[in-house]
Amino acid sequence: MREIHKFGSIEEVIELPNLTDIQIKSYNTFLQLGRAPAERENIGLQSAFREVFPIDETERGRQTGLVLDFLEYTLHPPEFSPEECREKDLTYQAGLFAKLQLVHKDTGLIKEDQVFLGDLPLMTEDGSFVINGADRVIVSQIHRSPGAYFTGAPKGTGRTYMASIIPMPKRGPWIELEFDNADVLWMKVNKKKFPFTLLLRVLGFGDAEIRGLFSGNETLIEATFEEDAAMGATVEEALLRLFTVLRPGDPPKVDKAISYLYSLLADPRRYDLGEAGRYKMNSKLGLTYQQSTLMGFEEGRFVDYGLVPTIQYLVKLQAGETEMTSPAGETVAVEEDDIDHLGNRRIRTVGELVADQIRVGLGRMARGVRERMLLGNPDAATPQKLVNNRPIVAALREFFGRSQLSQFKDQVNPLSELRHKRRISALGPGGLTRERAGFDVRDVHRTHYGRICPIETPEGANIGLITSLASYSRVNPLGFIEAPYRRVENGRVTSDVQYMTAHEEDRYVIAQANTPLTDDNRFAEESVLTRRLGDPYYVPPEAVEFMDVSPKQIVSVPTSLIPFLEHDDANRALMGSNMQSQAVPLIKPDAPYVGTGVEERVSRDSGTVVIAQEAGTVTFVDASRIVIENDRQVAREYVLTRFQRSNQNTNLDQRPLVDVGDRVEAGQIIADGPASQNGRLALGQNVLIAIMPFDGYNFEDAIVLSERLVRSDAYTSVHIEKYEKEARDTKLGPEKITRDIPGLSEAALRDLDEDGVVRIGAEVKQGDILVGHTSFKGETEPTPEERLLRSIFGEKAREVKDTSLRVPPGDGGIVLRTVRFRRGDPGVELKPGVQEMVRVYVAQKRRLIEGDKLANRHGNKGVVAKILPPEDMPYLPDGTPVDLVFNPLGVPSRMNLGQILETHLGLAAFKNGVSYVTPVFDSAREEEIKDLLEAVTERELAEEREAGFVPDRREQQVMRRAAKLGIIGRDLSYEEARLALARTGKSVLYDGQTGEAIDAPIVVGVMYVMKLYHMVEDKMHARSTGPYSLITQQPLGGKAQFGGQRLGEMECWALQAHGAAHTLQEMLTIKSDDIDGRNASYEAIVKGNDVLEPTIPESFKVLVKELHSLGLDVQVMDGERPISIFDESGRGR
């Protein structure tokens, strides 16, 4: 194990939080399993039940005297483990039971029942779900927080303002207040418009009181009074007028109007601001209300819970005032809101999203309960009979199976899993759409600092809509993202860490994490660079209130894995962050020589490594399990995952890191997972590279590499493919999985066992049988003679055809394991009509080949263009050939110079036999790297002097040329020139093919290079004949359909422009939809004859028929003689 040396001067006051907490904590809070039912808080699942229950039938006026109430819920233990669920295509779930109580009001009779409400998917230890055998992740959603917002728009020379009151998604109507051109303040509810004074009258305000509310700004509301034309109206009259506006078709009655307005804005079941919305309104308007609605109904009248202060605030804003006194006597600032500020956007995590679905399901269930209460016999009713759980089951199935936020887990490597769980999406139900989202929503906002990564986001249509949590950020119970800061008291930085939301942070002056400090944690300089409201200021140390906890708190976890990030352009850093998640786990993982110190935490928190739960001594180790005996002599077994297939067909494999007799501590990593070496993330390989042109082979970012990397399996990865075959009951008879297949030689069946399933360990290639399978041929009706013969001589054996599962084109490998499921086996759920199913896993070892994509961590990506023998690669003066050659043109214009610094430091690490940690924004400085390289060269020179080494004339020539070019100083001795060259990070290099020195010194060093998931073996495809479309008779498209290459409109133009008439005719006829011509051509090629002239293509016949349908008689003429291109039935021949 290599020794690790750390650069960086900034001490970390707090460690990174658990990186999957956003998922695990949210779901645990939603379930509250660790609490006794009586102690559960009114949140998550408990809150969903409490909102829907009690269910009675008083709402519709008819009373049955029945009330169904909720007492508590329990979750039964899951029937199968996550591993069994993956194997059997099941969902990892627990039965949800609720204890319900039915009270008969008339008789006082109480009936209690434990009612099954459906199965609730459970989260696995690593923060994902297993749904129908596949791992899925619920992505957190970011949306505008509920609350009151004040926005402005230009109008003439000034601005006009508008207020919006937004409830929780689907929990009530949006309310909008805006001034029109005539300065009338309109209120809009459900697209219905009325003067705001009408609602104030309903709340019991008279004309004078309304004017009193806006004292000082009466002129702004006079136009509304005139429009209202309801001077002196009573509360009832105002209520009826309001009801007429909101429900124009209904007859106005006071009780109906009260009931409607109550359900619209005052019923907590129908209208809900949520805790976050109420908190936002209270803090914005200086209120102290606790209710989640905008209005209440007390003692026969409506009361206000925040509507009036909202209107007052809007009027003050329109009047240009900057302050307002709240009803509680607090002075609040009057200002326009920035809707992209993170204080105004909140995160809906997995717990809240699932709770919403359960709420929807319970709401539908409650409707069914009410109907059964009315229609059934009240005396015979029980909770079990009243409740139908189908709506809850359907809502959960819909959400986990089909929601935009429930995604197939990205399992290419441990980092991609972790990144998927920390992803934040603005899309999904109740969110934005790609088409509607403008530039402002997608852009980086100042409040993203320390909360959302400004780098990591997709490059396509989703840019800025899908983002990632910053390393240290967390989501608070209200859903707002918080960032941590160190408190500063009287110019001294304390270790007291405080988490703040974006709005709280706006109040303070904050210093950067890299601000120089003295030994007693005071600021080392008289003037400190700080920021307030996103703007930079120099202030004296006493004025600083907080300080960042770490330089990497700005960026996400994948971005914090990029060494020398501060030297890279943001666009390339984005590509580097995204491409690390596409790196394929290799069979020989190699942790980077130049890392950032986050590698170990990623491996640990991704859940792919095995961690000792308690201290003890290792008593047994083999490839599949580790046994550790604790200090109380109790043994604990850790079972390792071996050769499991991931969602993306990569290999999930764990390898022990401990030996028998080793002492382990609690929390120690005892087994490596995929892409991990000694517990550190290892996505690629440390490769000796040169940055130079190479015979044009590295044109346009292409890469030249040494065959040594292929021979040593440096970039070899294992990919596991899953194949399935079902045996069904069909109309013609049952299909069979069997070894007895007609018309096949023994050689074709040699790897099948007696049941017709391929044996484990068999090497299979394209076209080989994996599962022997026969199905009956469709029979024609027998003639009377045949029937007579059959009745005399008995039924003849019916003919079967071979429908075996074969290895598809381009695939193959070693059979890893086979699984057979039969209907009726415990825990097996097969599709209707399927009697049994066989699943075969085939492992394929993929070496690096031309066409594979490689990339480094700085966004420098390219395709392998040429693999050369090591002896043809450029080599160093000591004879070491380089492994990989990058093009120098890929660096300057892209401004990702971090890769050059990584290469130089990597060389020092390689020669010193150590690894370096260089944290982001606190990296090794240029001078430190130069000193390391100089020290290494001094050591080499001493060894060469001792060995009596004579300098090479060619090397000296290159050095003289370097001096002329100004790379090193002039008139230096050989040793001085070597040392000067080492400080530039360059080396003399020799051409492997000619043995001559390359004209100028070249940058040579060690870079960390990854093999990406885009492998040429998945994309390579060729077709001679294959399937044709039934309608057009043209070849299908795409590799999956074994399709051909389309010759489109523009390709035809190109051939026409070149006058390639015969090529064009061949392409459009015998290679496409000329049925007779293509059959005749195939036969001619097989027999070695000349290919005949093409006949008429099917598409021409379609054109003729199209013209016939227009009433045009089109005939095909040969000179004067018409030719028929259709048969008697009118179909194309």
Automatic annotation (TrEMBL):
InterPro entries: DNA-dir_RNA_pol_bsu_ext_1_sf (IPR042107), DNA-dir_RNA_pol_bsu_external_1 (IPR019462), DNA-dir_RNA_pol_su2 (IPR015712), DNA-dir_RNAP_su2_dom (IPR007120), DNA-dir_RNAP_su2_hyb_sf (IPR037033), RNA_pol_bsu_bac (IPR010243), RNA_pol_bsu_CS (IPR007121), RNA_pol_bsu_protrusion (IPR007644)
PROSITE patterns linked to this entry: RNA_POL_BETA (PS01166)
EC nos: 2.7.7.6
Residue stretches making up the DNA-directed RNA polymerase beta subunit external domain: 485-550
Enzyme class: transferase
GO biological process assignments: DNA-templated transcription
Any one GO molecular-function label of the UniProt entry: DNA-directed RNA polymerase activity
GO cellular component entries: DNA-directed RNA polymerase complex
UniProt key word Transcription: yes
Residue ranges of domain RNA polymerase beta subunit protrusion in the record: 18-392
CDD domains named among the record's database cross-references: RNA_pol_B_RPB2
Catalytic activity, as annotated: RNA(n) + a ribonucleoside 5'-triphosphate = RNA(n+1) + diphosphate
Assigned keywords, A-Z: DNA-directed RNA polymerase, Nucleotidyltransferase, Transcription, Transferase
Domain DNA-directed RNA polymerase subunit 2 hybrid-binding residue range list: 612-1041
Pfam families: RNA_pol_Rpb2_1, RNA_pol_Rpb2_2, RNA_pol_Rpb2_3, RNA_pol_Rpb2_45, RNA_pol_Rpb2_6, RNA_pol_Rpb2_7
Start and end residues of each RNA polymerase Rpb2 domain: 144-348, 407-475, 1043-1117
Family: Belongs to the RNA polymerase beta chain family.
Quaternary structure note: The RNAP catalytic core consists of 2 alpha, 1 beta, 1 beta' and 1 omega subunit. When a sigma factor is associated with the core the holoenzyme is formed, which can initiate transcription.
Function, in words: DNA-dependent RNA polymerase catalyzes the transcription of DNA into RNA using the four ribonucleoside triphosphates as substrates.
The protein, known as: DNA-directed RNA polymerase subunit beta
